[in-house]
Design brief:
Strand order of the largest sheet of chain A: 9-8-7-10-6-1-4-5-11
Structural class of chain B: alpha/beta
Strand content of chain A: 25-35%
Structural class of chain A: alpha/beta
Strand content of chain B: 15-25%
CATH architecture of chain A: 3-Layer(aba) Sandwich
Largest interface: A-B, 68 and 75 residues
CATH class of chain A: Alpha Beta
Oligomer: heterodimer
Number of domains of chain B: 2
Number of strands of chain B: 14
Helix content of chain A: 25-40%
Number of helices of chain B: 8
Order of helices and strands of chain A: EEEHEHEHHEHEEEEHEEH
Distance between the termini of chain B: 64 Å
Shape of chain A: globular
Number of helices of chain A: 7
Radius of gyration of chain A: 21 Å
Number of domains of chain A: 1
CATH topology of the largest domain in chain B: Rossmann fold
CATH architecture of the largest domain in chain B: 3-Layer(aba) Sandwich
Shape of chain B: globular
Largest sheet of chain B: 9 strands, mixed
Distance between the termini of chain A: 61 Å
CATH topology of chain A: Rossmann fold
C-alpha cells in the first residue's frame, strides 16, 4: 500500500482576462481571482480515485508559495486528500520560482515521505511550461508517464495511455513513478459542503525549501512582458466569391 | 598588416577570456519520414555550430535528409533496436533516448540544446535539463540572441521576453513560429554513436495513430479549424474536402473533440497542439498565422460552395 504526492498550484482563474502591467514587468495579479490550476484538479481527482479504489493508502497535497496557497491546499483536502504540505516561498523567490526549483522540492519531499507515486498536472495555465513532472522524474531517476489520459495500476507497474502527436500511446512503467495529468484523464469532482467542513480539520504541515535542502536560486530572468501584437481590423465579406477574391488578392490562395 | 578576422580566429583569440563559441545540439523533427526542420532554424538564429542528434531503429533516410539542411555541421546517429516504436526516433521503449542525450552531453561541449515542442521534445528535454541542473524554456517563438528568447504565457495572452543565464540553454521550439530550414546546400558529416543499454523502467506497448497524408498540424502553412458549429463528424468531411483542395492541415477545437466529431490529435488550442493560441472556441483566432478567416453563418453552405468554386478553378 502506498502514498501519493499530488502537486497543486495556485494560478489566476482560467476565466479571468489577464492584463499586462503598464511597466511591462509582469501580469497584474493583485485583486485578481485565483484558483487551483485546472490540470492540478485533474491530478487530485485521479489520486483520490485511486485511493477510493483502495489501490493507494494516502494522498498528500503539496503546494509551494506564500500564505495564500493554503486555500488551494484546503480545496485539495476538500476533494479528498488526506493531509497537506505547504512549502513556504514568498517575495522574490516566489516570483522567480520555476519548474526546476519546484521539481527539486518535490523530489526531496518524495524521498522524505517515501511516496510511490507523484501525480502532477501536465502544465500550469499561467506559465504554460509543461516541465515539472519530467524534471521531478529526472531528479529521482523514476520513470515518467506524461500527458496521461488513462492510468491503470497493475501490481507494481502502472499502465499509462498518453496523448501524443498523432494519437495515443500506451506504456507500462514501474513504480515509483511520476505521472502528469492531461485534460481527458478525468472530470474533477466539486468539493461538497460537508467535505469542505471536514477539510478544515485535516492537517497542513509547514516547511521551507531550506528544510528540504533545496536552493531556490533561479538563473532565468523575465526581462519584460508584452501584450501579443494586435491583429489588424477584420474585413467582412458577404459572399463566398468575395472571400475567394480577397484571399486571392491577399496572396493566401 | 591587417588580417581578416573570421569567427573562428576571433574565438581562438578570445579563448583565454573564456568566451564560449555557440554549439547547439538539435533533435530534428520528422513526420512520416519527412523532415520538418524547424528546431534547426531556431538553432541557426542562436548562431554557431549545429549538430543534430538522431536516434531510432532505422535512421538512414532521415539522417540523409538532415545532412542536406543548410547550417548543420554534423549528425550524431544512434541506431539500435532499443528505440523501437512505429515511427523511427519518435517513440521509445524505455529511457534510452534520455540516457543517450545525457551521454552525448557529457562527451561534447554543447552550449545549447533544442528540439521542436512536440510530444517527444516536451517529454524529453525538461528531463535532460533537470539532470544538467538547468532550466528549460518551453515553446519559444523567437530567438533574440544566444541567451534571450520570447515565449508565450497565459495561453498566448501575453508574451514574455526571457533571459537565460544557465551554462547550457535548453529550449523547445514552437513549430509555427519559424520557417522550415532549407533542405538543400548542406553537407553534414555523420558520426555513429553508441547506444546505451536499456534500463527497463519503462516499456512501450502500443500506439494508435490516425494516419494522415495531410500536412502535420504544427508546421502547416494553412490550418482550417472546425468547431462544434459543424455539428457532426459528417460535416467535418466538408472541412477535409476544402483542405485537400488547399493543401492545408485540419484542426478542431476541444469542444468538437469532446463531442466525438474528430480524434484528439487534431485538437488545437492551449491544451491541444499549440498551433497558435486559441481563446474563443467558436471563432478562430490564430494570432500568429498570417490570415484568419472566420465563417459564422451557414457554415455548411459556405464550405460546400468554396469547395465547388475551387474545384471549378483547378
Amino acid at each position: 500500500m502506498s502514498r501519493v504526492l499530488v502537486g497543486v498550484k495556485r494560478v489566476i482563474d482560467y476565466a479571468v482576462k489577464i492584463r499586462v502591467k503598464p511597466d511591462h514587468s509582469g501580469v497584474v495579479t493583485d485583486g485578481v481571482k485565483h484558483s487551483m490550476n485546472p490540470f492540478c484538479e485533474i491530478a487530485v481527482e485521479e489520486a483520490v480515485k485511486l485511493k477510493e479504489k483502495k489501490l493507494i493508502k494516502e494522498v498528500v497535497a503539496v503546494s509551494c508559495g506564500p500564505t495564500q496557497v493554503t486555500e488551494t491546499i484546503r480545496t485539495a483536502l476538500a476533494m479528498g486528500c488526506d493531509r497537506g504540505i505547504h512549502v513556504e516561498v514568498s517575495g522574490k523567490d516566489y516570483e522567480a520560482m520555476g519548474p526546476l526549483q519546484i521539481s527539486k522540492i518535490f523530489a526531496a519531499l518524495a524521498k522524505k515521505e517515501e511516496a510511490s507515486l507523484i501525480i502532477l498536472g501536465k502544465q500550469a495555465i499561467d506559465d504554460d511550461c509543461n516541465q515539472t513532472g519530467q524534471m521531478t522524474a529526472a531528479l529521482l531517476d523514476w520513470p515518467q508517464g506524461t500527458f496521461a489520459s488513462e492510468v491503470t495500476i497493475d501490481g507494481e507497474k502502472v499502465k499509462v495511455v498518453r496523448e501524443i502527436d498523432g494519437g495515443l500511446e500506451t506504456i507500462k512503467i514501474s513504480m515509483p513513478a511520476v505521472l502528469t495529468a492531461d485534460l481527458r484523464l478525468n472530470t474533477p469532482r466539486y468539493a461538497t459542503l460537508p467535505n469542505i467542513m471536514k477539510a478544515k480539520k485535516k492537517k497542513i504541515a509547514n516547511m521551507k525549501p531550506a528544510d528540504l535542502g533545496v536552493d531556490m536560486v533561479s538563473r532565468v530572468e523575465v526581462l519584460r512582458v508584452d501584450e501579443p501584437p494586435t491583429r489588424l481590423a477584420g474585413v467582412k465579406v458577404e459572399t463566398v466569391d468575395d472571400l475567394v477574391a480577397k484571399l486571392r488578392a491577399n496572396g493566401t490562395i | 598588416m591587417f588580417t581578416a578576422i573570421n569567427r573562428r580566429s576571433l574565438q581562438q583569440f578570445l579563448l583565454p577570456f573564456q568566451i564560449r563559441f555557440q554549439s547547439t545540439l538539435v533533435r530534428a523533427e520528422h513526420h512520416n519520414n519527412q523532415l520538418t526542420p524547424i528546431a534547426i532554424t531556431a538553432a541557426s538564429k542562436v548562431g554557431g555550430e549545429i549538430t543534430c542528434l538522431e536516434a531510432g531503429t532505422n535512421c538512414a533516410m532521415v539522417a540523409d535528409q538532415i545532412s542536406k539542411v543548410q547550417g548543420v555541421k554534423k549528425i550524431l546517429v544512434a541506431q539500435h533496436d532499443c528505440y523501437k516504436g512505429l515511427l523511427p526516433g519518435d517513440f521509445w521503449k524505455d529511457e534510452s533516448p534520455f540516457i543517450l542525450g545525457w551521454d552525448i552531453f557529457k562527451q561534447f561541449n554543447f552550449t545549447h540544446f533544442c528540439a521542436g515542442a512536440s510530444a517527444f521534445g516536451k517529454n524529453l528535454l525538461p528531463r535532460l535539463s533537470a539532470k544538467l541542473d538547468v532550466a528549460t524554456l518551453s515553446d519559444i517563438t523567437e530567438v533574440k540572441s544566444q541567451d534571450t528568447f520570447v515565449r508565450t504565457i497565459y495561453a498566448g495572452n501575453a508574451l514574455a521576453t526571457v533571459k537565460c543565464n544557465e551554462k547550457v540553454k535548453v529550449f523547445t521550439v514552437r513549430g509555427t513560429s519559424f520557417e522550415l530550414a532549407a533542405v538543400a546546400g548542406g553537407r553534414a558529416a555523420t558520426e555513429q554513436v553508441a547506444s546505451p543499454s536499456p534500463v527497463g523502467m519503462s516499456e512501450w506497448l502500443e500506439q494508435s495513430l490516425t494516419k494522415s497524408y495531410r500536412p502535420e498540424l504544427t508546421s502547416a502553412k494553412v490550418v482550417v479549424s472546425g468547431g462544434r458549429g459543424l455539428k457532426s463528424g459528417e460535416n467535418f468531411k466538408l472541412l477535409y474536402d476544402l483542405t485537400d483542395k488547399m493543401g492545408a492541415a485540419v484542426g478542431d477545437t476541444r469542444a468538437a473533440v469532446d463531442a466525438g466529431y474528430v480524434p484528439n490529435d487534431m485538437q488545437v488550442g492551449q491544451t491541444g497542439k499549440i498551433v497558435a493560441p486559441v481563446k474563443n472556441p467558436f471563432a478562430i483566432m490564430l494570432a500568429q498565422l498570417k490570415t484568419v478567416v472566420l465563417i459564422k453563418e451557414a457554415i455548411k453552405l459556405a464550405f460546400f460552395r468554396l469547395v465547388e468554386y475551387l474545384e471549378h478553378q483547378h
